[in-house]
Amino acid sequence: MRKVWIASLVGSAIEWFDYFLYGTVAALVFTQIFFVSEDPTVGLLLSYASLALAFFIRPFGGIIFSHIGDRIGRKKTLVMTLSLMGVATVLMGLLPTYQAIGVAAPIILVTLRLIQGLGIGGEWGGALLLAVEYAPKEKRGLFGSIPQMGVPIGMFLGSGALTFISTTVSTEAFVSWGWRIPFLFSAFLVLFGLWVRKGIDETPSFKEVQKSGEIPKVPLVDTLKYHWREVLIAIGSKVVETAPFYIFGTFIVSYGTSNLGFTNTQVLISVMIATLVTSILIPIMGSLSDKIGRKKMYIYGAVAMVLYAFPYFWLLEQKTFLTLLIATVIGLGVIWAPITAVLGTMFSEIFSAKVRYTGVTLGYQIGAALAGGTAPLVATALLLEFNNSYVPIAIYIIITGLISLISIWAVKDRREEELDDFSKHEKPIKDESELKTLS
Description:
Layout: H1 2-28, H2 30-33, H3 40-71, H4 74-94, H5 98-101, H6 104-132, H7 140-145, H8 150-168, H9 171-178, H10 180-197, H11 204-212, H12 219-226, H13 228-258, H14 264-292, H15 294-316, H16 321-348, H17 356-372, H18 375-385, H19 391-407, H20 432-438
Helix pairs in contact: 1-3, 1-4, 1-6, 1-8, 1-10, 1-13, 3-4, 3-6, 3-17, 3-18, 4-6, 4-10, 6-17, 8-14, 13-14, 13-16, 13-17, 13-18, 13-19, 14-15, 14-16, 15-16, 15-19
């Protein structure tokens, strides 16, 4: 079980480290060397648009790799996704700037970002199922929270690397070559992640599906035919988990430096500390969900997010490093942690084993595309439209919480039930009611 935990967490953290590097550097550097414009705000919008594009490609990556994951296996798919992400990230670190090769630079950068999106689109579902499908019933919430720790750990590593480099070299050197170092260093992390993942076996649930002979020819078709309601629930539930996260962790980098007068280092340190706190809280919240239920934990987080939208900006408006740190720690740690800790396990419990990879991935990645990738872009556009007022952004956060609360309403708490009952797999599934009985 220790191997499973490590393989699930390490690979997830590396993938998200690569992914978040782009988001942070997009706010700090890319407007100067790739998306060059006379108006800095236009350059920032273009940079955030490139960030958003990867979110819209993530569902396609999810469809491709979840198909492989539900037909060939979770382990092999995870090796593919990690390799794809690693190659794209290293190439970003080697890419010439706009000043060197002109418009080809942002085009190649966006292409590599799309490749990253394909990789992360298939990664999350596999890392999640690696943990959940091995988990004993009474610890499923804890196990399901482990790969979720990869999100804040990845952001912590990215923010930490950029903070270290930005404080040890001049601003000119950081813009010129310093930002490239973490991208290139990710090659070593990817090799380590691949080594860890090759040392584990396929999950028990997938082995049972193979044994039953019920592997679907096209998992996407079966998912949309029998589990379309669950997919919609997952999409809606993902909204409050992803949009505020990118407000608190990515948008704050440009907003804090441009609108509030903080330095890059101050904002990055606040995000780094907040993600460290979040990484500690996630498994605690996951374990707590094994006692009180996933749905209760999720509802607490979503309601708290709605109530915190305006106080978050009130704290930022004090324009002190302490209030910046408090605002970020509360947002990412106290409020966001319980939502993300239970999200993956809750998704896993509403889909059957034969289409679970496809189901959880489809809901997660479509929800991320609709809310996550567009969040910094939407927030920046709202600032531009409403004369730098934070009020529309706070209302935007509230709306995401309300959408998710409505979506989660029909979910059943399954913490005391087995994830799968393979004793019923004696004949092929013929209709929707039988599939729902199994799930």
